[in-house]
Design goal:
- The structure is a single chain.
- Helices cover 21% and strands 30% of the residues.
- It has 15 helices and 41 strands.
- Strands 7, 8, 9, 10, 12, 13, 15, 16, 20 and 21 form a 10-stranded antiparallel beta sheet that branches. It has an 8-stranded parallel β-barrel with strand order 22-23-24-27-28-29-30-31, surrounded by 4 helices.
- Helix 7 packs parallel to helix 8 and helix 10 packs parallel to helix 11.
- It binds (2R,3S,4R,5S)-2-(hydroxymethyl)piperidine-3,4,5-triol.
- The site of (2R,3S,4R,5S)-2-(hydroxymethyl)piperidine-3,4,5-triol has 11 residues, from loops.
Length: 766
């Protein structure tokens, strides 16, 4: 509900539903933020005004004589420099090169129409209600300049946006315009999701203090360094209890958010585009619309907040055609072949992938131009006929004849100097005026701010999509930007236009975003691409950190996660296939292996794995996600609902003589009876090494031909476990079967070892 309330105490705006509420009061013409968080009633408005001691000492009063007009002391939903609020400002405007205070004063409000939204920027869909508050400049020089604060109420989140409209006759420059500003009361920690290539989105938590904590990206993209999303948790909040706010931004470029506690105990939260290097012209008649900023709130800890944020992303961000639609089991040739393939090799892989149960075959990098390595070919779209003599159309037809969908990799934003595209159009390269172009992965970026470049990409990509009947696209981008500020900002708008033009008319294509893995994992991209390749790192133990971080902000269906080879290409860690699968289940699941090199036992294991996954994928992809109690050094993820829940228990280093392990499961009906069944996993003989000598009737060398042959073909079972009990017992925890500690193998033993894991299916007994 959105409601204006006028009473002798002032003008209030109540925005709220059962998930959260936001209460504003117009105080001295400014937007005071009385409350943002718990779902309060409109009757609470007045009590929230309070009668606190304001306007003391050296405070500056916005209206002389009114101690309640010290803006520095009030919780605000917007602020500007020069009015007495000295906290970090959400806006900076320049007039003739000088900082100018427009002194925005509330004028009117109204609902927001779809046609008022910028057609290029991504927007969340399906708001319950919207409102815009209009403020007009009281500065004599800037008459006609106005500010719109937009609020859209969704079932589980609130979305904000800021718009500056210059109907004055003065040319202005905007060096900062945040999407949202909010002062919250309470003591908080802030959790950010940081990293770099192959180690993205690790969660880091620090207390919010009087010093400003900034979460910012300046590499041109939302970045693998600092994801735009972050959490504010009230001190003491845990997985299932306490207040947690989740914040995020629908923007794929440089972003900036900051939190800082004020002297009076409010935490100022700013979210928006990074102001670094930004100086945008706002000419008379012009307008500037920020990306949308999201906040979700829960008093049920991180799990409660994730539930709401995931629901918002699944229902209001993901393109309509892919909402809650199960993602196909994907096979991608990249990690198996890199650039070294031809049609025969691809068809051999596709045939095997099909037998394993994969539904979508994706041809990755290397199908065009002279692209046999990452030094050539980017920017060109002519098919490499040496590798694919029947062209993409021929390959696509053969793959589809196998009963699989066909998907294709592109990196349309980049160009290699060794390419036809670059030779013809060196002027298309993105660079800073007068500066040399700097290389990243041997490539340069194309200048997407140029209409002719956008046209080239749209026409080239669209033509291939239609001719080869492509059903999935992996849209890659593999370097940081060479530009900052205005140009980096305009680049992202250019990218959004390109994505609109290619994919709006082709909603049936499943688009997967990718940027060296997770260098652009954000809500802006998710408005076009229902899933994003989370990281080039597919090592499941690293993935536990990466995916765990991502799940704090994004639902499982959005997180591309594949089984790949062990030892792993980047960590050299050897992990069991079962764990590689169990981690990838919690995501948009796929396989990236050279299937021609697998042992028969591995093929069998993959076939069983995919078949089992398909029975449960809906819950894995769309079920309510939670983190749960687990022993030290282990992690427990849950996905599902009261009827069926999948629970993944992941170990890192296994202790010698391990303690008894307990399985506790949340979110079930305490009164119902459930059956718990561990996913059947295979165990490789080779896992026992020299121990085998003690159990075989004749002494055999563990690395000798007999045991190697047995290891290739003979499956053993691991971790069988089943039980029946109530939801209440599962909440409190049930003991799992014994773990290997040197002796005694039987089918119920969980061998596992380092990096072992299990997935349990918990289903109501019928
Ligand atoms: C980087 C991606 O993250 C990989 O998955 C792969 O597509 C390569 N690029 C191809 O060059």
């Amino acid at each position: 509900m959105i409601k204006h309330i006028d009473n002798p105490n002032g003008h209030f705006l109540y925005i709220g539903n059962t998930a959260l509420s936001c209460i504003l009061k117009i105080s001295c013409g400014k937007a005071e933020l009385l409350h943002l968080g718990a779902p309060l009633a409109e009757e609470d408005c007045e009590a929230l005004c309070g009668d606190t001691l304001l306007g003391w000492g050296c405070d500056v009063r916005y209206r002389e004589g009114d101690p309640r007009s010290c803006l520095d002391d009030l919780p605000l939903a917007w602020s500007e420099r020069g009015t007495g609020d000295y906290r970090e400002t959400p806006m900076e405007l320049l007039y003739e090169g000088t900082d100018i205070c427009p002194d925005f004063v509330y004028s009117c409000s109204g609902s927001l129409k779809r046609e008022e939204l910028d057609p290029v920027l991504p927007h969340a869909r399906g708001a319950q209600e919207t409102v815009k508050l209009v403020f007009r400049s009281a500065n004599r020089l800037l008459q006609g300049l106005s500010l719109e604060l937009r609020f859209s109420l969704f079932e589980t989140a609130l979305v904000r946006q800021t718009v500056l409209i210059n109907d004055s006759d003065k040319p202005l420059q905007v060096t900062r315009l945040m999407s949202a500003c909010a002062d919250l009361h309470g003591c908080f920690t802030v959790s950010t999701f940081d990293g770099g290539w192959i180690r993205e989105t690790h969660m880091h938590t620090v207390p919010v203090t009087r010093s400003r904590t900034v979460n910012e990206s300046t590499n041109g993209f939302s970045s693998n360094r600092h994801n735009p999303g972050f959490l504010l948790s009230e001190t003491g909040a845990g997985e299932d209890s306490g207040v947690v706010y989740g914040f995020n931004l629908l923007w794929s470029g440089n972003h900036c958010s900051s939190v800082q506690r004020s002297a009076l105990g409010f935490t100022r939260v700013l979210q928006g585009i990074s102001p670094e290097g930004l100086c945008l012209d706002l000419l008379p008649g012009g307008r500037l619309e920020t990306p949308e900023a999201v906040v979700a709130w829960s008093d049920r800890g991180r799990n409660g907040m994730m539930k709401k944020m995931h629901r918002f992303v699944n229902a209001c961000i993901i393109p309509a055609a892919w909402q809650y639609r199960e993602r196909p089991v994907l096979f991608n040739n990249w990690e198996g072949t890199t650039f070294d393939f031809n049609e025969a090799k691809l068809l051999s892989l596709a045939g095997k992938a099909k037998k394993i149960g994969c539904e979508l075959f994706v041809l990755d990098d290397g199908w065009f131009g002279d692209r046999d390595s990452d030094t050539a070919g980017l920017g060109d779209y002519s098919v490499n006929l040496r590798k694919l003599p029947n062209g993409l159309e021929g390959l696509s037809k053969k793959i589809r004849a196998l009963g699989m969908q066909f998907g294709l990799w592109f990196e349309p934003e980049a160009v290699n100097p060794d390419s036809e595209c670059f030779r013809r159009h060196p002027e298309w390269v993105l660079s800073s005026p007068g500066a040399d172009a700097f290389y990243g992965r041997n490539e340069l970026l194309l200048d997407l701010t140029k209409p002719e470049v956008r046209d080239y990409i749209v026409e080239s990509v669209s033509g291939i999509l239609d001719r080869a009947e492509i059903q999935y696209v992996k849209w890659d981008m593999n370097r940081h930007s060479p530009v900052t500020g205005n140009k980096a900002y305009a680049y992202i708008l250019g990218l959004y236009e390109v994505l609109h033009r290619i994919f709006d008319p082709r909603p049936q294509i499943l688009l997967e975003g990718c940027a060296s893995g997770g260098n652009r994992f954000d809500l802006g991209m998710l408005c076009f691409a229902p899933q994003i390749w989370a990281s080039d790192d597919t090592d499941p133990i690293e993935r536990l950190e990466i995916q765990d971080g991502l799940f704090s902000l994004y639902p499982q269906s959005t997180v591309g996660a594949h089984i790949s080879a062990a030892p792993h290409a980047q960590t050299l860690r050897t992990t069991p296939m079962s764990t590689r699968a169990n981690v990838s289940f919690f995501g948009a699941f796929g396989i990236e292996l050279d299937l021609d090199r697998l042992k028969p036992i591995e093929v069998k294991e993959l076939r069983e794995t995919v078949a089992w996954y398909k029975q449960h994928r809906k819950d894995f992809q769309f079920g309510c996600f939670r983190r749960n109690r687990a022993e030290k050094d282990a992690l427990c993820w849950q996905a599902g609902d009261e009827d069926e829940t999948l629970c993944g228990l992941f170990h890192k280093l296994i202790p010698a003589g391990p303690e008894i392990e307990w399985l506790s499961v949340n979110g079930l009906d305490p009164a119902r009876i459930y059956r718990v069944e561990a996913r059947p996993q295979l165990l490789r003989l080779a896992a026992f090494g020299d121990l085998l000598r003690h159990v075989t009737p004749v002494e055999l060398n563990a690395d000798g031909p007999a045991l190697r042959l047995a290891d290739r073909h003979y499956p053993m079972r691991d971790g069988g476990f089943s039980a029946e009990c109530s939801g209440a017992a599962l909440r409190s925890g049930i003991p799992l079967s014994k773990r290997f500690s040197g002796t005694g193998y039987d089918a119920a033993l969980r061998v596992q070892g380092d990096f072992g894991s299990s997935v349990f299916c918990i289903k109501e007994r019928t």
